[in-house]
Amino acid sequence: MNRSQPGARPSRLTVLAGPTAVGKGSVSADIRAHHPEVWISVSATTRPPRPGEQNGVHYWFVSEAEFDRMVAQDELLEWAVVHQRARYGTPRGPVDDALAAGRPALLEIDLQGARQVRAAMPGAYFCFLAPPSWEELVRRLVGRGTESEEERERRLATARLELAAEPEFDRVIVNTEIHAAAEELVALMVLDPNS
What we know:
By secondary structure, this protein is α/β, with parallel strands linked by helices. The protein has helices spanning 24-34, 64-72, 92-100, 111-120, 134-144, 149-163, 178-190; strands at residues 13-17, 39-40, 44-45, 60-61, 76-82, 86-91, 105-108, 125-130, 171-174. The chain has a single domain (13-190), classed as P-loop containing nucleotide triphosphate hydrolases (Rossmann fold), CATH 3.40.50. The strands form two sheets. Strands 2-7-1-8-9 form a five-stranded parallel beta sheet, with helices on both faces. Strands 4-3-6-5 form a four-stranded mixed beta sheet.
């Protein structure tokens, strides 16, 4: 049974990735607030919630044992250890359901996860969210105030490697202003960028 609208263009997965503190979560939150037609995946993670984060809204916060079970049962489209600490992964079932329903679908994930999705779903569209400058990326990370100095240094080291991966993506969006970056991304999802 085809659950998508008659005559509707088949849905394609869009993957948003970029370095730590570039604003992926803020761009996704803006899309969630202004574009209810876009389905946004909620990742599972073993890291503890930050202040204000809600289970099932920002992430599915799971134990190490539950994450192991999800991996063993092949319930994750992708997963990775991020910043040498916590594991993050994308539950496969909800992604498949959104695409089958013909909804524009977005994954906001890290670089390792994006590479796994490219291998699993080569037809997906890959967008790299870039900072206006390295200095701005550092300012955003420090300004967040959610990581220790040791954690910030670890994340900045990871960010240097992540920035070098920009050429692997289909499109680069510079996050100078959150709403503008979100609108640019939605336009790419709704209009077929390959047409």
